[in-house]
Amino acid sequence: MPRPSQPLLSRQRIVEVALRIIDEEGLAALSTRRLAADLHVRAPSLYNHFATKEEILDAAGDAVIAAVDISMFGPREWPEALRQWARGYRAALARHPNNVPFLAGGPALRPAALRLADAVYGALLDAGWSRSYATRIGATMRYFVFGSTLGPFALGFVVDPFGYAGRYPHLTDAHRLRQHREQVDGGAFELGLGTLIDGLVRLYDQTVVKS
Amino acid sequence: MPRPSQPLLSRQRIVEVALRIIDEEGLAALSTRRLAADLHVRAPSLYNHFATKEEILDAAGDAVIAAVDISMFGPREWPEALRQWARGYRAALARHPNNVPFLAGGPALRPAALRLADAVYGALLDAGWSRSYATRIGATMRYFVFGSTLGPFALGFVVDPFGYAGRYPHLTDAHRLRQHREQVDGGAFELGLGTLIDGLVRLYDQTVVKS
DNA sequence: GTCTATAACGTGATAGAC
DNA sequence: GTCTATCACGTTATAGAC
Questions:
Q1: Per-residue pLDDT tens for B45-96?
Q2: Which residue(s) pair with B108 in the sheet?
Q3: Cα–Cα distance for residue pair A28/B118, rounded to 1 Å
Q4: Could you say which of B125, B133, B147 has the minimum Cβ distance to residue A143?
Q5: Dihedral sign, CA of A59, A73, A121, B137?
Q6: Residues of chain B with C-beta less than 8 angstroms from the C-beta of A155
Q7: pLDDT 10s digits, A26-47
C-alpha cells in the first residue's frame, strides 16, 4: 500500500514523537529509522515533511523553548521579572535535558528562541539599561541558565566511589552527589541567580539611576 | 606493508591530531577514517591504542582541561583566586570551542578534570566555606564558565539581517553581534564574574566570618 | 606478542523512481 | 507514502610483517 487515503504524518506528529524519543532515550537514540518506526512509517517518508534530520531537531528544540513563559516582563519590576524568567527557563530546559546540548548553540532562526531573546532584551531596555548593558545582561543570564542545565553538576561525577578515592582528597564524597541531585543543582542555581540579580540591582542604582 | 619497523602511532599522536581536526573542522568532522588518514594509517589501527572512539574524545577533552592553571589556589585570597581561575578556565575552553559540548558532560573519570574539581573544592573548604556552600559555589562557577563558552552568545545569531527584521523589534541589530564577538562575550563574562564574586564575598562576610 | 592492513558487517542519512 | 540504492560511519575479524 504505497499511500493511504489519510496522511499518516504531519510536522506536528513527527516533532511530538521525536521529542518523546529524545526525552526517554537520548539524542543519540533519535535516528530517522527509529523515529519512522514509532510513527508506523518508513524513514524516507519523513522527508516529505522535513528537508533534513537537522530540521526535525530544530523544530523539536523550538518546541521546548516555546514553553518558556515571558509574561512576567512588563507587569513586574525588572529584577523580579528576570528572576522568574530565569527559573522558568531553567525548568523548561530541565524538563528536556537531552535536548539542551542542541539548544545551547543559540537561537539561530528558531522562532520561539528569538521571541525569548527579543522579550528579555526589550524588557531591559524598557527598564532603562543601555543597549550595551542589556546585551551583556542577556548573555550572562543565558550563560548561567544553560550552564546549569547542560552539565548538571551532580550528574557529572561517576557513581563508583572507588573511582575517586585517594587520588583526589576532597572528592571522597563526590559519588554521593547524585543522590542529592536536585538539592545540589537547584541550590547552586538559586545561589548564583540571587547573587547575580542582587549585583545587577546594585549596578543599576550606580549607573542607571545615578540620582 | 603490514607493519613498519617504527610504530606510526601512539596515544599522544592520535590525541594531538584529533584535537587539531576538532579545532579546525568541528566535532562532526572527526571520524575514525578521517583521523586515521591524517595519521597516514587505516582506521582499524586506532583500535590498538584506544578501545573506542569515545576514549579518544575523552583523552582529547582531558588534554584541554589539563591546560587550565590552578596554581593560584593557596597563595591568593579565595576571591581573587576564584576570579583568576575562572578566567583561565574560560580561556582554555575558548581555545577549543568545538570540544566544549563534549566537556560539558562533567569530569566523569578524566584525570585533569578531576584534579580541577578537587582543587577548587579544596580551596573553598580551606577558606572556611562549609561543604554545602563549597559544592554549590563550585557548581555555580562551572555553570557560568561552561555557559559562556558553550553557547557564545554572539555566535548564536544568524548573519542574515533580514532573518530578524520586523518580527522581533528589539533584535534589529542582532546580526551585528558577530562583529563584536569578543567584546560582547568577554564583556558579558566579566560582568557576570564580577557580580558573582562580589556577591560571594558579601555572603562570606555574613555567614563564615559572622564576627 | 605488537602493530598494521584488508575485508566485511550493521546502521546511519538521504536521493530517486514508483 | 514505499522501495531501492548510495555512501559514510564505528567497529570487528583475520592475517601477515616486525
A1: 999 999 999 999 999 999 999 999 999 998 899 999 999 999 999 999 999 9
A2: A157
A3: 31
A4: B147
A5: negative
A6: 106
A7: 999 999 999 999 999 999 999 9
**Are A52 and A59 within 8 A, CB to CB?**
no
What is the separation of C-alpha A182 from the centre of its chain, rounded to a whole number of angstroms?
16
- The cell numbers describing A113, all together, are 528562541
3-state secondary structure of B8: coil
Among partner residues A125, A139, A184, which is closest to B135 by beta-carbon distance? Answer: A184
Q: What angle do CA B122, A199, B210 make, to 5 degrees?
A: 50
Distance linking the first and last C-alpha atoms of chain B: 75
- Output the CA torsion sign for B170, A205, A88, B142: positive
Residue type, A151: G
Task: Render the burial of A138-159: b for 16+ CB within 10 Å, e for the rest.
Answer: bbbbbbbbbbbbbbbbbbbbbe
Q: How far apart are alpha carbons A34 and A32 in whole angstroms?
A: 6
Give the minimum alpha-carbon distance from B25 to chain A in angstroms, rounded to a whole number: 16
Taking C1' of C7 and every protein CA, the nearest residue is B44
**On chain D, which bases lie within 7 A of the protein's CB atoms?**
1-5, 8-18
Instruction: Name all domains of chain A by residue range, CATH numbers in brackets.
Output: 11-50 (1.10.10.60), 70-207 (1.10.357.10)
Burial bucket for residue A54 (CB in 10 Å: 0-12, 13-18, 19+): exposed
B28 CB neighbours strand C below 7 A? no
Q: C-alpha distances in angstroms, B60 versus A58, B6, B16, B17, B63?
A: 28, 24, 8, 9, 5
Reference A144, options B164, B51, B139, B78; nearest CA is B139
